[in-house]
Amino acid sequence: METKKSVNEPEEEKKSRWKKLLKKFGIGGIIFFTVKGIITSTLIYFLGKNFWTIISNYFSGLFQ
User: Fold this and answer.
1) Which residues span the membrane (predicted)?
2) How far is residue 17's CA from residue 38's CA, in Å, rounded to a whole number?
3) How would residue 59 be classed by pLDDT, with cut points 50, 70 and 90?
4) How many CA atoms lie less than 13 Å away from 56 in the CB half-sphere?
5) Burial class of residue 30, CB neighbours in 10 A (0-12, 13-18, 19+)
6) Which helix H or strand E contains 17, and what residues bound it?
7) Which of 3, 30, 40, 43 has the greatest CB tally within 10 Å of its CB?
8) What is the per-residue pLDDT across 2-18, written as a single tens digit (0 to 9) for each?
9) Measured at the alpha carbon of residue 32, what is the angle toward residues 31 and 35, in degrees to the nearest 5?
């Protein structure tokens, strides 16, 4: 018994996510958004880490 494949299978026509992004933004855009994400994550980490220290020092200095 032979299985017949339909002409328009969605699995064959489905492009990968990376190929769609590469076609939309180009290699420069992919590099830009990757670097932007790394910088944003780093800033959020370090600013969040010191946020409560800065706020507590501000209010303790304000009330002295």
Assistant:
1) 25-47
2) 20
3) confident
4) 5
5) middle
6) helix 17-62
7) 30
8) 555 555 555 555 778 87
9) 85
Residue 45 maps to a domain: yes
What are the pLDDT digits (tens) for 31-53?
A: 999 999 999 998 888 888 787 78
Is 6 within a domain?
no
The per-residue pLDDT for range 15-35, each reduced to its tens digit, is: 788 788 788 888 898 899 999
- Domain with 53, as residue range(s), is 31-63
Which tokens sit at 49?
Answer: 């880490």
Residue 20 corresponds to which amino acid? K
Residues 6 or more apart in contact with residue 22 via CB below 8 angstroms: 30
Tokens of 33: 């958004």
* Rounded distance between C-alpha atoms, residue 60 and residue 6, angstroms: 72
